[in-house]
Amino acid sequence: MNHHDQNITRRRMLQRSACGFGGLALAGLAHQDAQGRDRTPNDLRPREPMFPARAKRVIFIFMQGGPSQIDTFDYKPDLIKNDGQDIDFTGVRFGTFGTRSKRKLLKPLWKFQQHGECDQYVSELFPHMARHVDKMCMIHSMQTEGVAHGPSTLFLHTGATNLVRPSIGSWITYGLGTENQNIPGFITINPSASKGGPRNHSNSFLPTIFQGTAVGRAGLPASEAKIRNISNQMLSKNSQRQQIELMQRFNRMQMDKTQAIYGDKSLSVDDRLEATIKTYELAYRMQMQAPDIMDLSGETAATLESYGIDQKETEDFGRQCLLARRLAEADARYIQINYSDESENPKWDQHSNMPKHEEHARAVDKPVAGLLEDLKQRGLLEDTLVWWGGEFGRTPFAQGKDGRDHNPRGFTVWLAGGGVKGGYAHGETDEIGHEAVSDKVHMHDLHATILHLLGMDHEKLTYQYAGRNFRLTDVSGTVIRELFH
Hints:
Alkaline Phosphatase, subunit A; two-stranded antiparallel sheet; 19 strands; single chain; 9-stranded mixed beta sheet; alpha/beta
C-alpha cells in the first residue's frame, strides 16, 4: 500500500487488491501445470511433424477383452492336430508365477482359409474383413505388460500401469495439433468407464486441451452417442457469438492485469488463462460444425448398408465406424472406436464360453470392412492409419470346457493404410500360438511405430513434468520399419 494513502478505507483497500488476490489464487492453481514446461502449446493449431509423415491421423478400433488370435488370424495347424493333449505351460494366471503346470490344448473352434493375393489365413469368424487382407499389415508377434484387463488396457492406452500418464491420443495431438480447429483433435466413441476408464483418454499432466473428448459411453446405443451441450436452442447464433466475445474480453482483461502486476512471473497464470480461453473458443466453434459431423442422416442407403447399419446385429458398431470416417474426413487427429461394455467381463473375454466369440465377430466384422472400403474409396486410407486389436490375446489351452484365459505373451493386431505394407504378415508365435518367438513386437514398439508413421520420433516427443522428461514409450520402444512401404 502506498504510504500517502494513510486514510484509505478498508473497503477501498479490498476493492483495489481484489484482482491481485484472484491472480494469486489462479497462479497457485496453474503452478503445477507449468512446472518445467519447455513450451506452452495451449491450442490445437497444426504443428509440423519432426520428419516427413506417412499418416496424418489414426483410427483405433479397440476390441476390449482380448479376442483370441488363434481363432481369428493366427492359423496353427499343430494346435488343431494336437487338440486335447496335455502340455506343460509356465504359469502367468494360474498357480505361482513362473511355475509349470499341464493344460489341455483347445483347437480353434472355427475353420481357417487363405484369402487375397497375400494368401493370409483368416478364420470364418471374419468373412467380410477377410476380403480386405491385402490392405492389412498383420503383426502376429505382439507382447504386452499385465495379465488382467485393467493394467493391460491402461498399458495399451498410456504405455504405463504404475502412474497416471497421458494416453496415446493426447500425446499425438500434443505433438501435431489438428488441422480442424472446429472439433477436438482426440475423440473416443463410446468408451468404457472401467478397466482404466477415463485414464484411457486422459491428458494427465499434458495441457488440458489435449484430453480426449468422449462421445457417448459404453452400454449406451451408438445412436445416442452425442457431444453433450453441443447446441443451444435458447439463443440465436448471433447472441451466442456476442456471449462468447464478452466472456473472452473479461478473460483477456484478467490476463492483461496479471501481466501488469507480475510481469514475467505471470507466465504460469498466462498459460492457464490462455488454455481456458482456447477451450471456450473451441466449444463455441464446435457448436457451429460438430452437429453436422455427428448427423448420419445425409449418408446414402448404400453407405449405411455397407456399414451394416440396416441390420440389427451390426447397426450399433456400424454407427461408430461411420462416425469415425466422418471425423477422419473432418480432419480429427486421433479417433478411437470402442467395442466395449460395462460388465465385469468385457465383450471378448470368454473364459468359459468361446462360442460367444461368434456373436462379437458378427457385430464388428461388416462395420470394420465397410470402414476400410469407405476410407479407400474416398482416398482417406492413404493417410489414415487404422489400428485394430485388443489389450492382449488368449491362450491355446482350455479354461474349463471351452474357454480361454488371458495371454499377453503372443497375440495379433493389424494395421492398414497410413504407409504400412498391405498383405504383409510380421512375426510369429510358436507352433500352438502361445508365445511370440520371432520378430517380437512389444506394445512400446507398436506405440513407437505409430508415432513414427505420423512423423514423430518417440524419443524426442517428451514433456517435462515433476523434474523429468516423460514420453509415451517411457525408456523403451523400437520402430518396426519392416512394416513400412
